[in-house]
Amino acid sequence: MLHDPDAMEQTLRERLEEIDWPRETAIDFDLGSDVSTIAVDIDLPCEDEMPDRYWTMPAKQIRLTPRRLSDTRQRELYRDHAHGIAFRVLGAVFARLPAVQEAKISGYRQITDQATGGERDQYLFSVKVTREQWSRIHFDRLDQVDPVAAMEAFTLRRDMTKTGIFRDIEPFKLV
After folding, report:
1. For residues 108 and 122, what is the distance between their CA atoms, to the nearest angstrom?
2. Parallel, antiparallel or unpaired: strands 166-167 and 155-160
3. Residue 48 and residue 85: Cα distance in Å, rounded?
4. Is 44 in contact with 108 (CB distance < 8 Å)?
5. What is the pLDDT of residues 141-166, one digit of tens each?
6. I need a labelling partner for 112 at 20 to 30 A (CA). Which of 10, 49, 85, 132 fits?
7. How would you label 141-171 residue by residue, b for 16+ Cβ within 10 Å and e otherwise?
8. d(CA 169, CA 106)
9. pTM for the complete prediction?
């Protein structure tokens, strides 16, 4: 069971399907030939699917008032969401697949290619994490862990501005 690729695939697929993602999130993965590595591709929601408002309650009034989020704040929410998904998937991989010693997680979104007008995948990040690196996270204090900073502690390919604008990267491949 621990080294049976079919059983490993079914176990991980079932776990990922149990997760109630806040936005539609499609995940595909490929176990390496010796089942000690895995490559995971996450089809992330688009940035425009993130909230563009927040709600406040004015003093001395019992009503909610919508406020528009700034573009920068919307991008920060998207950045946090994308990295949080990767963090959650890494947790599922290492918890459910004890034979896996290294995971490569890549996140992409569908964008319109300005050269052709067609759709294409834009990879936003790709991270390589070993089981040993993952074990350094203090899971008893997850409320203190920032998924963005956690991904930066691993081998990470990402081209992102301080305000959360992502540019294309070349993802890690399963070798």
Report:
1. 5
2. antiparallel
3. 17
4. yes
5. 999 999 999 999 999 999 999 888 99
6. 85
7. eeeeeebbebbeebebbbebeeebebeebeb
8. 10
9. 0.88
How far apart, in whole angstroms, are the C-alpha atoms of residue 32 and residue 65?
Answer: 51
Report whether 50 contacts 70 (CB < 8 A): no
Q: 8-32 burial, b if ≥16 CB within 10 A, otherwise e?
A: bbebbeebbeeeeeeeebebebebb
- Cβ distance 6 to 86 under 8 Å? no
Amino acid at 175: V
Please, what is the end-to-end C-alpha distance for the chain in angstroms?
23
Cα angle 33, 39, 42; round to 5: 150
